[in-house]
Structure formats: structure tokens, C-alpha cells
Design brief:
This protein is mainly α. The chain is built from eleven helices and no strands. Helix 3 runs antiparallel to helix 4 and helix 5 packs across helix 6. The longest helix is centred in the C-terminal third of the chain and has 38 residues.
Length: about 270
């Protein structure tokens, strides 16, 4: 008899198992919502799916009477712009610092302890300092995202560089390659797919810091809207916004997975 660790589900069964938790959560929500609405039709805590659908349709299609904007798309554009800029800067910093600290001992001895300490500081604890130093505009929100995820990417890339076979670096040196050439032609191609993985894994934290920053100081954005309507207990807006954020996060994750698979097919093949 096969041990459980050696048994693998078929593709249809894998799909069913993956959907099972979502179905269970949906059933629990529907039963709880139905019970509360049966007791009190004006209950606002657990609105029905149809009420949330109507609210989402209104937010996505009806112009705001005061500004003339369609709220959902304006908020989405604002949040994605901040998130994209923060993640891009973090990725570039993480790649440059991670490769340098992983490859060059003097740089590693100088900056690794500092990066390690910075990565241990909870970014939300320095949120007031960020707002005081950089104001309440767009810059402070991007800075918070960079402070939150760049140290993680730096340390991850450094570790990947240190894990590269030393034989490769030795062979490159025997062929006359300089430090710059080794970093550019031996190390960089091998850590680029890992950079995409690190960015993908840090997206959840990036969303967290973005929502926190928008909740405190913003005039538009997904986090701003959620915290604006919470004072009215408007769950018909909050829950669709949360689901919309989740959908955007999943799409970003899938996009990075697809980019890794297309740009670096050997990376996934090697891991499997």
C-alpha cells in the first residue's frame, strides 16, 4: 500500500480540492447572511450576494455626482500606481544591493548587518515618521512600501547569490573575467527569476502597507474608500472592495508566474 506522502491527486481532483475551501467559506457566509437577514431584513453586517453585486455594479459604472468620476476605477488606478511604483523601486534596490552583498565580501560585511536590522523594524511602526518626513502625499505611501518589502528582497537575493556553486565563479575567474563581468554575466542571469519570485512573494505585504497608508492619508484609493465607508457600516461596499483587491492581487501573482515561466523556462524546469 502506498504511503500517503507518495499519493498524488489527479488533475480533476486537484481542481476540486483547490475549490473546496472557497465553496465552504461561501456556504458558511450564505447560511449566516440568510439567518441574519431573516431575523432583521435591515441587517448591514452580512449583506446578501445580490446586494453586494448591485453595489459593485453601481461603483463600477455610475459616475459620482460631485466629481463626475467612476469611483471604483479612480480608486483602482490610484492604488495600482502607488503599488507598482513602490514594488518597482523595491525590486531594483533589492537586486542591486542583494547581488552586491552576496558577491563582494567587503560589501557584505558593511551592509548585511544594516539590512538585517532594517528588515526587522515593523514598517507600520515607522508610519508616523514617514508621514512627518515625506508629507501626506504620494511619496510617503511609496516610501512605506519600499521600506516594507525592499529589505526582504535584498536578503533573499543575497542568499541566492551565496548559494550559487563556487565552481562557476572560479571558472569565470580562470577565464579572466573581472568582478563586474562575473556579476553581470554569471550571477545576474541566475538570480533574475528568483527576483520575480521574491517580488511575487512580497506582494501581500506591499498591499498591506499600501492599504494602511491610504487609510490614514489619501483622498482616493482602494484602502481610502474602505476606511471612508466603514463609519457608515457600509458592508455592501467594503466586502466587494475586499474581493476586488483580492482579485487584483491574484491577477498580479499569476502575471508574475507567467512572466517567470516565459522568460526563464529553465528555472521552473530545474526546480521541478
Amino acid at each position: 500500500m502506498k504511503r500517503l506522502i507518495n499519493r498524488h491527486p489527479t488533475r480533476p481532483l486537484s481542481l476540486a480540492l483547490g475549490l473546496l475551501p472557497f465553496v465552504l467559506v461561501l456556504l458558511v457566509y450564505l447560511s449566516a447572511s440568510t439567518a441574519r437577514l431573516a431575523e432583521n431584513p435591515d441587517d448591514r453586517l452580512l449583506p446578501s450576494l445580490s446586494a453586494m453585486g448591485e453595489s459593485f455594479h453601481r461603483l463600477a459604472t455610475v459616475e459620482n455626482r460631485r466629481t463626475g468620476d467612476i469611483v471604483l476605477w479612480v480608486d483602482t488606478q490610484a492604488s495600482l500606481s502607488r503599488l507598482g511604483l513602490g514594488v518597482l523601486i523595491s525590486a531594483l534596490l533589492g537586486l542591486a544591493v542583494g547581488v552586491a552583498t552576496g558577491l563582494i565580501p567587503f560589501v557584505r560585511r558593511t551592509f548585511s548587518p544594516f539590512v538585517a536590522v532594517v528588515s526587522m523594524i515593523p514598517p507600520l511602526a515607522v508610519l508616523p515618521i514617514v508621514f512627518i518626513a515625506f508629507g501626506v502625499g504620494e511619496l510617503s505611501k511609496v516610501v512605506l512600501i519600499v521600506l516594507g518589502i525592499a529589505p526582504f528582497i535584498m536578503r533573499d537575493i543575497q542568499q541566492r547569490v551565496e548559494e550559487l556553486p563556487r565552481e562557476q565563479l572560479t571558472k569565470a575567474q580562470t577565464l579572466g573575467a573581472s568582478t563586474w563581468q562575473i556579476g553581470l554575466r554569471v550571477v545576474l542571469p541566475q538570480v533574475l527569476p528568483r527576483l520575480l519570485d521574491a517580488v511575487r512573494l512580497s506582494l501581500g505585504a506591499a498591499w498591506l502597507f499600501l492599504i494602511a497608508a491610504e487609510a490614514i492619508a489619501a483622498t482616493e484609493g482602494l484602502g481610502y474608500r474602505i476606511f471612508l465607508v466603514r463609519r457608515y457600516l457600509d458592508m455592501e461596499t467594503i466586502l466587494p472592495y475586499v474581493m476586488w483587491i483580492s482579485l487584483l492581487a491574484v491577477l498580479l501573482d499569476l502575471t508574475l508566474r507567467l512572466a517567470t515561466r516565459m522568460l526563464f523556462p529553465w528555472y521552473r524546469g530545474g526546480r521541478s
